[in-house]
């Protein structure tokens, strides 16, 4: 087990069992070091799709593995060494969550309008 994984385990993380593929994703990120591992390089390293890798990273995060993400270009995943290393990742995730909440609010409003009108009114609402 790597030094960072051992430290994480000693601090009470992770709590959920992780399969071997997901753990291999963590090790690829760990080897990349402080500058991080870009998504395209992770895809090449694992031989799996970007979506599969992102799902594995989400699973790692839920289990308590300290996986951060550099924003912008070139970006990349990294293993956090201290709590403040995760601040940028958390801020970007919170921003995406707020954006999604606004989109969902608009969709719910539209659904309510569509659900209460006559077919002609519904067509006018969507511009047809």
Q: Overview of this structure, please?
A:
- This protein has helices at residues 3-10, 20-32, 39-46, 50-63, 87-116, 119-125, and strands at residues 67-70, 76-79.
- It is mainly alpha-helical and 128 residues long.
- Strand 1 and strand 2 form a beta hairpin.
- The model has no long low-confidence stretch (mean pLDDT 84).
- The protein folds into 2 domains: 1-81, Arc Repressor Mutant, subunit A; 83-128.
Question: Which short descriptors sum up this protein?
Answer:
6% strand, 128 residues, mainly alpha, Arc Repressor Mutant, subunit A, two-stranded antiparallel sheet, 6 helices, 2 domains
Topology:
Elements: H1 3-10, H2 20-32, H3 39-46, H4 50-63, E1 67-70, E2 76-79, H5 87-116, H6 119-125
Antiparallel strand pairs: 1-2
Helix pairs in contact: 2-4
């Amino acid at each position: 087990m790597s030094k960072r994984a051992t430290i994480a385990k000693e601090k009470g993380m992770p709590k959920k069992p992780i399969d071997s593929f997901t753990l291999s994703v963590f090790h690829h990120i760990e080897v990349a070091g402080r500058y991080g591992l870009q998504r395209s390089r992770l895809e090449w390293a694992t031989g799996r799709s970007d979506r599969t890798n992102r799902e594995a990273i989400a699973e790692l995060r839920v289990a308590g593995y300290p996986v951060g993400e550099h924003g912008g270009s070139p970006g990349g995943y990294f293993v956090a060494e201290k709590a403040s290393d995760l601040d940028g990742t958390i801020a970007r995730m919170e921003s995406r969550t707020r954006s999604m909440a606004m989109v969902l609010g608009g969709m719910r409003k539209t659904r309510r309008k569509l659900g209460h009108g006559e077919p002609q009114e519904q067509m006018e609402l969507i511009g047809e």
